[in-house]
Amino acid sequence: MAKLGENVIGESSLAPLFKVSNADEVGINAPENRKGDALRTWVRSLSGFQKEALVRSAKTGDTWRLVSDEGPYLSGHDEAPCPLAFLTTGMIASYMNEICALADMQGVEIRKLKLIQDNFYTMKGSMPKRTMVGGAEPVELRVEIDCDLENGALNTFLMNAVHASPLNGLMRGKLESLFKLGRNGVELPTAKVAELEGDLFPDPGNHFAKSRAEASSFMLVEPVGMTPKKDVALGTAAAASSLADEQNRRLNPGAIAELRPDGIKDIQQMLYSPHGTSFRFLSSEDGRAPDANTLISAGIGFCFMTQFGRFVSMLKLDLPDYRIVQDTHFSLGGASGGTGRAGEADPIETHVYLETSESDETAQEMLDISEQTCFLHAFCRTNLKTRLKVVRV
Q1: Is 339 helix (H, G, I), strand (E, B) or coil?
Q2: How many other C-beta atoms are found inside a 10 Å radius of the C-beta of residue 338?
Q3: 201, 255, 372, 383: least surrounded by Cβ within 10 Å?
Q4: 263-289 b/e with 16+ CB inside 10 Å = b?
Q5: Backbone phi, then psi, for 362, in 5-degree steps?
Q6: Under 8 Å CB-to-CB from 28, ≥6 apart: which residues?
Q7: How is 143-210 classified by DSSP, letter by letter?
Q8: How many C-beta atoms lie closer than 10 Å to residue 107's C-beta?
């Protein structure tokens, strides 16, 4: 099947991931920091399923530019990591942050540490009948570790670290995301999704193009080849399989993380189902590479935007341009932030800007179906646990 859209990312001279040196000139500000970290994420469609995001954090002050694409399963160009790769990478980075911080607090010497994570999502139903729904399943985390803690104490230590992750706030409980909607510059009420109080934010328009890259000596993200194959129940690999009218499939992105001697986390993201390309990420909390919350926030925004593209492609609707402004609010990490508490988060707040010749009612339906089929908004509205397996090495 022919690829959808132009290969804007592949033809660009810009690095796929960089710290923005002129965020104030671009015009992106962080939200009010009400919990410990507040991130504003701008996302725009480039072409097909290619997207660009800018993420600014109140805690770090940094702004990062990231891009996302899809592979053959969505007739994409495969030029950048898929949306789910970003949340999986940010999650495993956050877990490593908390494990290392808790070890420092408790005087635990960790001689070796590797994290291996699997995330699972589902897509079921009929798009023509508007019954297709995205879902999220429990996360599996394998910790390979060498330390002196006894088995019981080690299990308690690791579970405390997992619960200390700010992402815990999106997993534990059922958070209903909030939205504002604009069509062709005019604010509309939402239909089925919950509406966010207040006014629709200004549309970021083409302000993305103003961003300039800060010099870096690191390759922050790069492809490393096809993900090794493994059996995944209801897994898919066929071209355009994610565009089928009727679906009952299970997705399995994963990641493997290790800590480099310089303190940067080296993470290989896997895409087992739908089977696709693996990308290597770097992550750091000190500004040398994107922090965990930035990767998580970008992933949520990218995934939501993909659902707009999928819906209008499958139903042949008119949506030549669309953007979002998304705010995420996280507590500080229980260990890394010194709070001693489990991580917390507020519901995701998203402002949607659609440019379309379709009716107001169709614009409202675009938002409803995109929320309904978004894996990561499902992740937020589902009470999830991380299943831990510990292996001594």
Answers
A1: coil
A2: 11
A3: 383
A4: ebbebbbbbbbbbbbbbbbbbbbeebb
A5: -70, -35
A6: 40, 42, 54, 56, 63, 204, 207
A7: EEEEES--HHHHHHHHHHHHHHSTTHHHHSS-PPPEEEEEETTEEE--SSSEEPSSPPPPP-TTGGGG
A8: 6
Please tell me the distance from the alpha carbon of residue 321 to that of residue 329, in angstroms, as a whole number. Answer: 27
Mean pLDDT computed over 316-323: 96
Instruction: Kindly state the tokens that stand for 320.
Output: 């030549």
Kindly report the number of other CB atoms within 10 A of residue 150's CB atom. Answer: 8
pLDDT confidence of residue 1: 55
Residue 198: name the closest of 335, 349, 42 by CA. 349
Tell me how far apart the alpha carbons of residues 163 and 184 are, in angstroms, rounded to a whole number.
Answer: 42
* DSSP-assigned beta bridge partners for residue 388: 141
Using DSSP, how many helices (H) and how many strands (E) does the chain show? 8, 16
Q: Is beta strand 178-183 parallel, antiparallel or unpaired with respect to 194-195? A: parallel
What average pLDDT does the chain have? 96
Rounded-to-integer distance, Cα 93 and Cα 136, Å: 20
pLDDT digits (tens, 9 = 90+) for 57-90: 999 999 999 999 999 999 999 999 999 999 999 9
Asked if residue 5 lies in contact with residue 47, where contact means CB atoms within 8 angstroms, the answer is: yes
Please report the sign of the dihedral spanned by the C-alpha atoms of residue 284, residue 285, residue 286, residue 287. positive
Q: Percent of the chain beyond pLDDT 90?
A: 95
- Which amino acid appears at position 364 of this protein? Q
- Look up residue 284 and give its two tokens: 């750091």
pTM comes to 0.97
Could you give phi then psi for residue 20, rounded to 5 degrees?
-85, 130
CA distances from 15 to 52, 60, 280 (A): 12, 22, 14
Cis peptide before 274 (omega within 30 of 0): yes
pLDDT reported for residue 160: 98
Asked if residue 318 lies in contact with residue 140, where contact means CB atoms within 8 angstroms, the answer is: no
Name the token pair of 212.
């300039």
